Amino acid sequence: QSEDSDKSSAESDSETEVEQVSGYHKLLATLKTSPESESEEEEDESESEEAEESEAEMDSKGTQETGEGEGGEEDKNDVPEEEEATDTEEQMLSQEQADGTDTSCDPRRGVIEEFTDVKHESEFSLETNFMEEESGDCNADRKDGNPFKQHMDKELEEKEIKKMSTLPKTSSQSQWPRLGQLIFSSTLEKHKTLKADKEVDVKQLHLHKPLESTWSKVNKQFLSALDKPTDSSFTPLQRELFCVMNSYRDLFYPERNALTNGEEIRHAYCLHALNHVLKANAQVLSNNAKRRDRKPGTDSDDHRDQGLTRPKVLMIVPFRECALRIVHILISLLEVNDKKKIDVSNKKRFKGEFGSDPEEKPPNLKRPEDYEAVFAGNIDDHFRIGVAILQKSMRLYAPFYSSDIIIASPLGIRTVIGAEGEKKRDFDFLSSIEILIIDQADIYLMQNWEHVLHLMKHINLLPLDSHGVDFSRVRMLNLNNWSKYYRQTLLFSALQDPQINSVFNKHCFNYAGQVAVRNVPLTGSISHVAVQLPHVFRRLEADSVASVIDARFQFFVDKVLPEYRDAIMSHTLVYVPSYFDYVRLRNYFKKEDLNFTHICEYTKKAAVCRARRFFLKGEKQFLLFTERFHFYKRYTIKGIRNLIFYELPTYSHFYSEICNMLKATDSGVDATWTCTVLYSKYDAQKLAAVVGIDRTAQMLQSKKNVHLFVTGEN
Predict the structure, then answer these.
(1) Distance in angstroms (rounded) separating the CA atoms of residues 682 and 675
(2) DSSP label at residue 145
(3) Are the CB atoms for 497 and 442 separated by under 8 Å?
(4) How many structural domains compose the chain?
(5) Residues near 107 by beta carbon (within 8 Å), at least 6 away in sequence
(6) Could you tell me the pTM of the whole model?
(7) How confident is the model at residue 294, as a pLDDT?
(8) Which of 2, 64, 392, 489 would you call most buried, defined as having the most Cβ atoms within 10 angstroms of its Cβ?
(9) How many Å apart are CA 122 and CA 98, to the nearest integer?
């Protein structure tokens, strides 16, 4: 399948390196537990190896015996990091098949096929149900100032659409107490400036029943942790985020932290998404009743209240554990009190497939707190599930075309969308998405960013089939193919990255405008380096972003590597963020017959142990080491004396983590430690995250190499 694969026969570990399945799947398989643990010989590595050997991560069924995937040819710089999973067997479209079959897990693929819940179809049908009296009067949603009605009922004109398609956005800045610096941008005439509410009365937010009463109860866990007690039902962060969300502007928040504010943010966007769905459905049910009660022969065009397909909210999250937490929040928000439990269809099956067994986790693992927070629970990355909500009931595993909310991973949604020319593919259900939530976007950089781009290319397109829609009820904005101009996109990430910025800037067209949080790091992660180490930042010149990849390689080969070829510069670790840069360097090292070993995200356990042992003992002078391996494993590499960052890390805290590995080997040779970092003017964001904004400004103005010395007391 990997036609671009480099078939180099010079592989020292005799690994064929043909990538048969998604490389990320192979990697994920090693994170899962099995009853066995390997007993590789690891001399002098008692501390870290004890932990790693007990991680029964190693022999999962998903792990391929092909070793590393040898990525594309040397000059292919922009190819996605793994082969995309396009096997037609994995195009699981059973959501759309109304056969009600409950298919079991296929052990060969390790993927559970979705089943279609037919039993509850009529019960959750929007077309055949009506508004219940106690569910709240939909006319309340017609009050002036209601954000949902204001956003969805605005009728754009052709000239405004043309303006948004052709003219650049105008932007303005604002400083908010908690979010910091915000950049507001819009193509249409300047909207009134959005100000941060100091206090929020829940009743003024136009929340749908029962959310007014349930939100404060569900959110209580975060309020009790605040330093200053508050009467508000929002934390300061939630209040400002929800203020933007409720204005229906697009939002990019790049300071999500799994350890600190991740759950706060999840609760806030779940409230917004559920509020949107309840209001939209209440409007449809109310209009159903009006149409039922109208006099025969009267025809009205007043009840255009739907999209071309039913799904309104799409939530993209990286792991099943995230989907589990979202569904639990949605259920909690719908339950007014302990006596009024809502009916949740297929709840038991959902818990079985999305939950995890706490006893499965291997003991004695020593990993950073942020690692534990990100990889908590069920970390399978191939899933999708439809959720239908109607008044006091929720239906899990609803067919997509009967769902209000779809929760999926990038890979899960990618295998449904399929690729050009495939027989089994479907993306009509994405045609009328009104809110797109992409949470933990930074993790997709470590998975396969192509899946995210593929989704953005297929969202809000006109459907190829009518899917039984009543066109007299479809909004004109959908019939005009203007859905993308009404879609709100909420993007949450742990970092700023050009690829994430590109999605927000190039694939978000909301007429209401965009809000991006743009705070600059003042100190940088270099302040967390705990060892005395000279840092040399070497600037390379490149004419464009496209040419920087080749320029970096040439600079490394011509200027940096010759200084490290001498045997005295042994124990040199080369940290490489891009897998394809890693392949290029590895092939060059082989060609030059350098004494090196290498570890990447596809390397088998035995080969990893062997490489670490060779490097520690000095039998191999160089160790090529990929960022994604570090992201998924967080092993401590012992024996480092010289560090080369081929490129600045994606996650800034990885810089200090890797530097602090030097103290893992107490050999009394501190004075000989070195750290060299390659950077260009296009690395401004990453550089600022490592050294701080002030140093970055100086370094980008000067074309000289910069020498910094960290004392370990910073």
Answers:
(1) 21
(2) T
(3) yes
(4) 2
(5) 61
(6) 0.83
(7) 75
(8) 489
(9) 13
For a pLDDT cut of 70, what percent of the chain falls above it?
A: 75
Residue 557, classed as helix, strand or coil, is helix
Give the number of other Cβ atoms within 10 Å of residue 468's Cβ.
Answer: 8
SS3 for 631-673, per residue?
HHHCCCCCCCCEEEECCCCCCCHHHHHHHHHHHHCCCCCHHHC
- CB burial class (10 A; 0-12, 13-18, 19+) of residue 61? exposed
**Cβ atoms of residues 676 and 643 within 8 Å:** yes
- Amino acid at position 222, single letter: F
C-alpha 619 chain-centroid distance: 39
- Within 8 A by CB and 6+ apart from 162, the residues are none
Give, for 45, the enclosing helix (H) or strand (E).
Answer: none
CATH code for the domain in which residue 493 is found: 3.40.50.300
- Cα 56–59–62 angle (5° rounding)? 120
Residues whose CB is less than 8 angstroms from the CB of residue 633 and which lie 6 or more positions away in sequence, other chains included: none
What is the C-alpha end-to-end distance of the chain, expressed in Å?
Answer: 50
Which structural domain range is residue 232 located in? 203-291+305-360+379-517
d(CA 325, CA 480): 36
User: In angstroms, rounded to a whole number, what is the distance separating the alpha carbons of residues 698 and 264?
Assistant: 37
Mean pLDDT of all residues in 639-648: 96
Q: CB neighbours of 80 closer than 8 A, spacing ≥ 6?
A: 448, 449, 450
Q: Which amino acid would we find at residue 549?
A: I
- Give the C-alpha distances (Å, rounded to integers) separating 231 from 204, 225, 272, 374: 15, 13, 20, 31
Tell me the pLDDT of the chain averaged across its residues: 81
Structure confidence at residue 517 (pLDDT): 97
Per residue in 297-350, pLDDT tens? Answer: 666 667 888 999 999 999 999 999 999 999 999 999 999 877 778 999 999 999
The token pair that represents 667 in the structure block: 């050999």
Distance CA 342, CA 335 (A): 6
**Is 416:451 a contact under the CB 8 Å cutoff?**
no
pLDDT digits (tens, 9 = 90+) for 28-71: 444 443 333 333 334 334 434 433 443 333 333 333 333 343 33
- How high is the pLDDT of residue 632? 95
| 168 φ, ψ (degrees, to nearest 5) | -75, 160
More confidently predicted of 533 and 493: 493
Query: 403-415, pLDDT tens digit by residue?
Result: 999 999 999 999 9
* 23 inside domain: no
Is the bond preceding residue 358 a cis peptide, omega within 30 degrees?
Answer: no
Residues 6+ apart with CB under 8 A from 453: 503
| Tokens representing residue 493 in the block | 């990430």
Could you tell me where the beta strands, DSSP code E, fall in 333-404? 343-345, 384-390, 393-396
Q: How far apart are CA 25 and CA 632, in angstroms?
A: 12
Tell me if 474 is assigned to some domain: yes
More confident: 556 or 121: 556
Give the number of other Cβ atoms within 10 Å of residue 649's Cβ: 23
Do residues 508 and 570 share a domain? no
Tell whether 457 and 437 lie within a shared domain: yes
Q: What is the pLDDT of residue 296?
A: 67
pLDDT 10s digits, 352-367: 999 988 766 666 678 8
What is the chain's alpha carbon radius of gyration, rounded to the nearest angstrom?
A: 27
Mark whether 345 and 479 lie in a shared domain.
yes
Beta-bridge mates of residue 566:
none
Q: Choose one of 517, 544, 572: the last residue of a domain.
A: 517
Q: How far apart are CA 214 and CA 206, in angstroms?
A: 14
| Percentage of residues in the chain having pLDDT higher than 90 | 58
Question: What crossing angle do the helices spanning 579-591 and 548-555 adopt, rounded to 10°?
Answer: 40
